[in-house]
Design a protein that fits this description.
alpha/beta, TIM Barrel
C-alpha cells in the first residue's frame, strides 16, 4: 500500500496536464513558420531597453550593444512590456520613486509618443489585440523592484494610474516587506520569512487595482506567500527552469506546478546563465567580475561612449564563454510545458538587461527560428500561439476581471509600521 505522502505525490503528477511532444516526421515548411509569425501575438514580458532610452538612445536607431531596436521588432513582436527597472542603489535617500517616474516617462515619451506609427500605448488585453490588428506594437510597462513604491500603497496606486500593469515584488535586493533571491546563495533562506504583513497587503492591493503580481527575483518563500495571498493569477515575468539549470533565479518544478494551479504563467528568460548549466558553471567567475563593470558602464552619460564601453564588455564575455543556444530555450519551454501544462508558459526575454543571450535568438527577428524548432519538436501552431502570447493575454484578462470583482472594495491603507 502506498503511504499517504507517496499517494498524494503520485496524484499530483497524474493531475498535471502533460504534453508528450513527438518530433515531426515531415519537414516544417516556411509557409507554416510565416503563418505563425503573422498570426501569433508575440508578447515579451520583460525588456530593459528603457534603461538606454532614459539616457538618450532612440529605439528607431540600430542597437549595437543589445537586442532591442525598432527594425528588429517590427513584423515579429506584438507587444512589449518595457521594464521600469529601478536599481537598488536608488533606495538610498529615497530616490526610488524619482527613478521610477523617469523610467515611466521614457517609455511614454521617448518610445510611444516619439514613434506613434509603430507603438500603441496599452494597458489591457483588449488594447494588445487592438494594436495587433493595427499592425502596431502594443507598449506596456512593468516595474522591476518592489522598492520602487517606497513602502507606500499610495505610490503603488499612482504607478497603476500611469500605466504600470505588473510589479516584480523584489529585484536582487530584499526590501522592507519581501525577501529576494539575490540576497542569498540559498533562495530558501529568508530575512522576513517571505512576505511581511505589509507585503501581503501589497499583493492584495495589486489584485484590487488589476496589476499583475510578478514573482521573478523573489526568494522561494516569497513566491509561496504570494501564491497563497493572491486571488488573481500571478506571473514570473522572466524566469526559467531550475531542473534544467540550477541557477537560483529559476523556478523549481514544485513552483511551476503551484503557479499553474494558481492559473498564472512563467515567462522563459533568455539570459545564458539561466538557460545553460554549462554556461552557468563556466561564467560564474566571469560574471562576478563583469556585472559591476556593466553597471558602471550604464552610468556613462555620453551615449556613444556608453555604447562603446558596453560593446567592449560584451565582446570580452562572449570570447571567454560560448553562449547558450536556441536548443537550450526549447529545452526550458518543453520542460515547463511538461511540468505545468501548455497554458502556463510564455516568453520574457530580459533583452538589453543581460550580458549574454542565446546564439540564434539575438533579437525578435530571430523568433521564426524558435517557431521552426518548436514545430519540429511536435508543438502545434495553436500551442505556439499560446506560448508566444495567448497565455499571457488569458492571465491579463483574469487579473482585469478580478479587479472588476473587487471594484467596490476600499483601497488598503496599511502603513509600513506593520511591515517590520
Amino acid at each position: 500500500m502506498l503511504s499517504s505522502r507517496r499517494a498524494a505525490a503520485l496524484f499530483s503528477l497524474l493531475a498535471v496536464p502533460v504534453l508528450a511532444q513527438t518530433p515531426r516526421t515531415k519537414p516544417v515548411t516556411q509557409a507554416e513558420v510565416d503563418k505563425i509569425t503573422r498570426e501569433a501575438i508575440l508578447i515579451d514580458t520583460h525588456d530593459d531597453i528603457p534603461s538606454k532610452t532614459v539616457t538618450g538612445y532612440d529605439i528607431a536607431t540600430p542597437n549595437k550593444t543589445g537586442q532591442t531596436d525598432l527594425a528588429r521588432m517590427k513584423g515579429f513582436l506584438g507587444a512589449e512590456f518595457f521594464a521600469v527597472f529601478v536599481d537598488a542603489s536608488y533606495v538610498k535617500d529615497n530616490h526610488s520613486a524619482n527613478r521610477t517616474l523617469e523610467m515611466i516617462d521614457t517609455v511614454r515619451t521617448d518610445v510611444i509618443l516619439k514613434h506613434p506609427d509603430e507603438f500603441m500605448y496599452a494597458t489591457t488585453a483588449a488594447d494588445v489585440e487592438k494594436a495587433h490588428k493595427q499592425k502596431k506594437i502594443a507598449a506596456l510597462m512593468g516595474i522591476e523592484g518592489g522598492h520602487a513604491i517606497e513602502d507606500s500603497l499610495r505610490l503603488l496606486r499612482d504607478y497603476y494610474a500611469l500605466g504600470i500593469r505588473y510589479m516584480t515584488l523584489t529585484h536582487f535586493n530584499t526590501n522592507n516587506w519581501a525577501d529576494a533571491q539575490g540576497d542569498h546563495d540559498d533562495p530558501t533562506v529568508a530575512k522576513h520569512d517571505g512576505l511581511t504583513p505589509f507585503g501581503k497587503d501589497v499583493v492584495r492591493e495589486m489584485n484590487r487595482l488589476g496589476m499583475m503580481v510578478d514573482i521573478s527575483h523573489t526568494a522561494d518563500k516569497t513566491f509561496y506567500d504570494a501564491i497563497a495571498v493572491s486571488t488573481a493569477p500571478i506571473i514570473a515575468s522572466h524566469s526559467s527552469c531550475r531542473a534544467v539549470d540550477t541557477h537560483t533565479r529559476n523556478m523549481t518544478d514544485d513552483m511551476i506546478r503551484a503557479l499553474a494551479k494558481n492559473g498564472g504563467t512563467m515567462q522563459i528568460n533568455f539570459d545564458c546563465g539561466y538557460l545553460s548549466q554549462r554556461y552557468n558553471d563556466a561564467s560564474k567567475p566571469m560574471m562576478a567580475e563583469l556585472r559591476p563593470k556593466m553597471m558602471e558602464a550604464r552610468k556613462i552619460a555620453d551615449p556613444a561612449a556608453r555604447d562603446a564601453a558596453m560593446e567592449k564588455l560584451f565582446m570580452e564575455a562572449s570570447a571567454k564563454v560560448p553562449p547558450a543556444t536556441l536548443a537550450d530555450v526549447v529545452e526550458h519551454i518543453d520542460h515547463a510545458v511538461k511540468v505545468g501544462g501548455i497554458d502556463h508558459v510564455g516568453i520574457g526575454t530580459d533583452y538589453d538587461g543581460v550580458g549574454c543571450v542565446p546564439a540564434g535568438l539575438e533579437s525578435y527577428d530571430k523568433f521564426p527560428a524558435l517557431t521552426r524548432a518548436l514545430l519540429e519538436k511536435g508543438y502545434s501552431a495553436t500551442d505556439i500561439k499560446k506560448i508566444y502570447g495567448g497565455n499571457l493575454l488569458r492571465v491579463m484578462r483574469a487579473v482585469e476581471k478580478r479587479a472588476q470583482e473587487l471594484k467596490g472594495m476600499a483601497p488598503i491603507e496599511t502603513t509600513i509600521a506593520t511591515a517590520k
